[in-house]
Amino acid sequence: xxxxxxxxxxxxxxxxxxxxxxxxxxxxxxxxxxxxxxxxxxxxxxxxxxxxxxxxxxxxxxxxxxxxxxxxxxxxxxxxxxxxxxxxxxxxxxxxxxxxxxxxxxxxxxxxxxxxxxxxxxxxxxxxxxxxxxxxxxxxxxxxxxxxxxxxxxxxxxxxxxxxxxxxxxxxxxxxxxxxxxxxxxxxxxxxxxxxxxxxxxxxxxxxxxxxxxxxxxxxxxxxxxxxxxxxxxxxxxxxxxxxxxxxxxxxxxxxxxxxxxxxxxxxxxxxxxxxxxxxxxxxxxxxxxxxxxxxxxxxxxxxxxxxxxxxxxxxxxxxxxxxxxxxxxxxxxxxxxxxxxxxxxxxxxxxxxxxxxxxxxxxxxxxxxxxxxxxxxxxxxxxxxxxxxx
Length: 391
What we know:
The chain has 391 residues and is an alpha+beta fold. The protein is built from 14 helices and 12 strands.
């Protein structure tokens, strides 16, 4: 006697206008108004915006200057990303109570594998409604949910009836839902691929599904053709899996105007090293490799790295290495971007028996305790006190 393989059941949860919704929750004066969160410099972009702002054509990843033209009456703020992370952590704790496997996609969305959890639910719809109610009760925020046999369909479903949506796609209704949708809804279809498909008179997923495989392969290549045809038929075999641990920890900053002063560049590197060191220690890690990233005003980008004799998580050593890498580039043009990242991790658990190392451990532990209580700006280097706070 053979048993049939259990059909997968995947839930995708996506918080609606996450950053903007938190701000509107916390600030009564923002409610019901077009609110845009993002970088306010000339090169800033929109992180997210309220649904009131979306009516004016504003959307995430849009240059902020364009958003200001489209919605001059909008409220524009930089946002509090540390606070958003705290709210995200609370939401992910809720996710963990609803599924044994959670795969984060970003700060405000995740896949939940609820396969085989029928004993804990009256129905998938009731289970999703319960999750949405708990998120709203605990955080005051609204989530949209999609449920389907795989990740592609679940993510697509969560986006169909935003905000506060709940859509369930099954094998029985998947083609009736998929076929009328634009091919732009498929993962991997960007502007270039969409342009090729349009030239083939393929605008909907239904038209894509019915396209001859050889014709599609000739236009896009075998790999992309197979990928698109599979998704057009609702086929996606990827498993829901927890995100792998970070392979590097870093921080970079893009400047509103190109940086031309060497001393100011080194001051920025000091601030970046301070942040990278703090994050390494927060994860209980030391890194053997320090990498510098530098982009000039003409967008030419350089990366330089150095592997240390001993792994470190200390600001001073990260900074010294980054500065030496920077000086070795002999930059003569304006700098658009600077970044530092650390990789090649070692666990940093035990305090060294050597006096100097133990002293550094204790010093940085005290610094981190202050930052944990008062925020990353609670204590910093004297050289950075007068620096504009763009990091």
